[in-house]
Design brief:
Elements (H helix, E strand, L loop, with lengths): L16 H10 L3 E5 L3 H10 L3 E4 L3 H4 L11 H14 L4 E5 L9 H13 L5 E3 L6 H9 L4 E6 L5 H4 L9 H16 L4 E5 L3 H10 L4 E4 L7 E4 L1 H4 L17 H18 L6
Parallel strand pairs: 1-2, 1-8, 2-3, 3-4, 4-5, 5-6, 6-7, 7-8
Helix pairs in contact: 2-4, 8-9
The structure holds 3-methyl-2-oxobutanoic acid.
Length: 271
């Protein structure tokens, strides 16, 4: 692929939901990151990332909120449009925000449709063991759906915090059943968030759909990270399972300091 700078083996062709299934069949991992604007999307796309998630995590890392709950449909459409404009190869998946898919089937369909039609997303993601009929209805309307089980940030108050899920046998069985039902309903992939690695490995073995782990161990079909966590841009709590590949926040603070110093001393602008 022209422009890929990683040296990693990167398929040149556009990534589609069918690529996810092919990758799982061939045992090739899927690399996904979050993006919220065109510039960041372009940088990650040129690096060869397979999929970009316009996550409602933007509530925290972009808007500075305490949780993802204040994120609305209008905000998601706005950021999805920006990411799509910066992306050439990666599959763009947009999160359905809190209460955009729970009220009734018509509203769910309209909201998912907005993310695709106005935002330009190629798939939507929704959290939890939503009734499989909801997912089936979206899939029947031509809207690819990514599921999300385990720790569900939109249910943080009900879960009592950002805690690992699936630790008890009963909870683990519930998550296996949820993932199976979501896959059966037609989800093309499922995010597994903050669950024990053995449970994620079991779900990955037992369902056909590829699994994308975040804090769920190495035996998923792929991985996703919040890019602001992975690249050291977010100044808040970063979960311990995150590997940080750069400290861009510190680099930018130093660069801004140099600029401020130049302006104050008259070194910039040059005559
Ligand atoms: O919103 C988000 O960034 C997510 C990831 C944590 C999977 O849903």
């Amino acid at each position: 692929m022209t422009g890929a700078v990683t040296g990693a083996m990167t398929e040149p062709r556009k990534i589609r939901i069918t690529t996810f299934k092919e990758r799982k069949k061939r045992g090739e991992k899927i690399a996904m990151l979050t993006a919220y604007d065109a510039t960041m999307a372009g940088i990650l796309d040129r690096a060869g990332v397979d999929a970009l998630l316009v996550g409602d995590s933007l509530g925290m890392v972009i808007m500075g909120e305490e949780s993802t709950l204040p994120v609305t449909m209008d905000i998601m459409v706005h950021h999805t449009r920006a990411v799509v404009r910066g992306t050439k190869r990666a599959l763009v998946v947009a999160d359905m925000p809190f209460l955009s898919y729970q009220i009734n089937p018509e509203e769910t369909l309209r909201n998912a449709g907005r993310l695709m039609q106005e935002g330009g997303a190629e798939a939507v993601k929704l959290e939890g063991g939503q009734s499989p009929e909801v997912i089936r209805r979206l899939v029947d309307a031509g809207i690819p759906v990514m599921g999300h089980v385990g720790l569900l940030p939109q249910s943080v108050h009900q879960l009592g915090g950002y805690l690992m899920q699936g630790r008890s046998e009963a909870d683990a069985e519930r998550l296996v059943a949820e993932a199976a039902a979501i896959a059966e309903a037609g989800a093309f992939a499922i995010v597994l968030e903050s669950i024990p690695a053995v449970l994620a490995a079991r779900i990955t073995r037992e369902i056909d759909a590829p699994t994308i782990g975040i804090g769920a161990g190495a035996n998923c079909s792929g991985q996703v990270l919040v890019s602001y966590d992975a690249f050291g841009l977010f100044d808040g709590f970063v979960p311990p399972f995150v590997k940080q590949y750069a400290q861009l926040g510190e680099t930018m603070t130093r660069a801004a300091g140099a600029y401020i110093e130049d302006v104050r001393t008259g070194r910039f602008p040059a005559p």
